[in-house]
Amino acid sequence: MIFLTHDSGLLKHWQRALNRGKAPIFHSFAAFHDSKTAAQIVWIDSAVKDLPPWTDPAWASVFLQQRHKIIFTSSAPSDDEAITALDAGCTGYCHAFADVATLRNVLQVVESGQVWVGPSLLQRLIKVANHAKSSASTPSIHWQTGLSPREIQVATLAANGASNLQIASMCHISERTIKAHLSSIFQKMNVTDRLQMTLRVHGIS
Q: What is the fold of 2-117?
């Protein structure tokens, strides 16, 4: 894991929250890029002054050649910035000073090969998906193929914005079981994360 920030307070927050006190630290994008480190999860503070625009070839090197998984963070996050960062190739976007539980959740999601988009952006995407769904003449149910009735229920609830804890409460089963159902759903639907599943359920894929 790598931390890219010049904010000492933020650095300490990340180190404590993620239990990575000895992780490499860079204070500038140039130093990070020139280090040519092996593929790792990299937490980037959007306030770093020399961050290049997303169209800069340097990012292609980071994503494609060094194969880093970038978690882009901001002290003033916005859905528009999140969409831009994720579209550029980042695998996560969140508030830089998010609480410990959230930061650890983001890390767990990214480590598992999924994309973290955050509840606000997910809700926005769901609204777009619902609008597209309501405009369609015949809603597709092909996404349900191969899923059990319980998996269809879990996928539908998750695709409409319910958290794992909320789904567990509504289904009267444990949160751990919900996570197991979602893993099975992802595999059967041939998707890698909750966002892709949500778009598939709502007929956008």
A: Rossmann fold (3.40.50)
